[in-house]
Specification:
single chain; 34% helix; alpha+beta
Length: 127
């Protein structure tokens, strides 16, 4: 009986997960797929791991939209929608934006140049 009791703490220790390290909180960006839907409507599909919340993956899509807007020679984008999902450790966002040369109507607009600069400063990759 003593032998079983002595092994019990060792068995519990083997089942414990190690504490998180700093690397566990550094996002890994897995890429962006861009699809022109119609006219100025663009879809961005992004994937990442180690996101801390849905906001992280939505920000990744926003950064992709900002850079894409600049690449196309426009200055502004308007957020239409973002759907976020998680499968295992992979977070995905399916976001749609309109892009335009002038500030579009609506409340959820972004200045592409300012946003792309902010993304670069925060280490979030773009297209």
């Amino acid at each position: 009986m003593k032998r079983v009791a002595a092994l019990f703490p060792l068995a519990l220790a083997a089942c414990e997960t190690p504490p998180p390290t700093a690397e566990d909180f550094i996002p890994e960006y897995k890429g962006v797929e861009t699809k022109l839907l119609e006219g100025d409507l663009v879809q961005f599909n992004v994937a990442m791991t180690k996101a801390q919340s849905t906001k992280d993956v939505a920000n990744y899509a926003r950064c992709a939209a900002a850079q894409y807007t600049l690449i196309r020679g426009y200055g502004f984008a308007r957020h239409v929608r973002t759907n976020v999902s998680q499968e295992g450790s992979i977070w995905r966002a399916d976001a749609v934006y309109t892009i335009s040369p002038s500030l579009p109507r609506g409340l959820r607009t972004i200045d592409a140049e300012v946003t792309a600069q902010d993304c670069a400063e925060r280490g979030i990759p773009t297209v």
